[in-house]
Amino acid sequence: MRTLARMPKERIAGPSLDWAMAALSVAFVAGLFLDGWAHTHGKVDQSFFTPWHAVLYSGFALNFLSLLGVAGLNRSRGYSWSEALPEGYGLSLLGMSLWLLGGPGDLVWHTLFGIEEDINALYSPTHLLLATGLVLAASGPWRAMWTRPGSTSALVVQLPMLLSLAASLSALTFFVQFAHPVTNRWGFGYAPVPGVYQALGVTGFILINALVVGALLISMRRWRLGAGAFTLVLGLNAFAMGFLDDSYPLAWVTIYLLAGALLDGLYRWLNPEPGQVGSMRLFAVLASSLLMALYFALGRPILPFNWSPHMVGGMVFIAGVVGFFLSLLMFPPTLPTERDGR
């Protein structure tokens, strides 16, 4: 009896927590889309304090306080701080902690620079910080179920994971909403986005960056690439594409040759081996971001454009996110069966 009395009470974890946090994640992301709807329908003035922001930040508060409550209750039941949150939810709490910085930062940003309009509104530094936190928060049930041993194809069991996945995906696509086929049917002659050239530019940057980095990563997974490999691949590709156009082709080809040389240097510096997942992920993020940053830095003197600084910075950030997700496809997280040696 004494031994039983000293045993900690059952920890709050498992499917019940997944269901609760999946529902809260959906509500959190729904607040984001409600605020986005208000922006696109002219319901937002030059004030930070709007009913739409109130709904969004209420979703944040519910998620944040719920996870804090779970951690506190588990701690009171005798579990250590490292065990207070089930595996997968630590990053959710970290993501919501970013809102403690991004929320006040967004208020300061809007106070100093006003309410951004159109595509620029998506890529202010504070909005990108909030976006990162939201994706980390919403993906908690997905991560928790990934790490848990056992698998089932029953939809009702998978539902918390799928709701979490849908919420996380929706938070990501919110920040490239102008390129989504549901909202912009360019192929059918329908493009309601203000600043359509910005939207087309962003879409092209993301697409080509994903193709380039994806092709490089799959090769890096198999081979230790030789000196000059990146310069050769990017240079030949740029030369082939420049052959199709007669407006500044040599200058743009040169940019990609320099980008290839930069990636060669990054590859030698990080020295990622095929089995070193961490260094491969870091290379994917930095390579994607550097490609975008170099294109903007060297391309601007050739053909000036009117993008705002935070629009440029936002694209460099989004490129890094795309690189990270490509690395997840090339080097997936460990499965529970692999981790347990079965």
Explain the layout of strands and helices.
Elements: H1 2-6, H2 15-40, H3 51-76, H4 90-113, H5 125-138, H6 140-147, H7 155-174, H8 196-222, H9 229-242, H10 249-270, H11 277-299, H12 309-330, H13 336-339
Helix pairs in contact: 2-3, 2-6, 2-7, 3-4, 4-5, 5-7, 6-7, 8-11, 8-12, 9-10, 10-11, 11-12
Q: What would you say this structure looks like, in words?
A:
This protein is mainly α and 342 residues long. Helices cover 69% and strands 0% of the residues. The protein is built from 13 helices and no strands. The longest helix has 27 residues, at 196-222. The mean pLDDT is 85.
- What is the global morphology? globular
**Number of E-state strands:** 0
Return residue spans where pLDDT drops below 50 for at least 5 consecutive residues: none
* Radius of gyration from CA coordinates: 23 Å
Share in β-strands: under 5%
- List the secondary-structure elements in sequence, H or E: HHHHHHHHHHHHH
Mean pLDDT score: 85
Question: What's the number of helices?
Answer: 13
The level of helicity is 55-70%
Largest sheet: none
Structural class: mainly alpha
How many angstroms does the end-to-end distance come to? Answer: 36 Å
Kindly list the characteristics that best describe this protein:
342 residues, single chain, globular, 69% helix, 13 helices
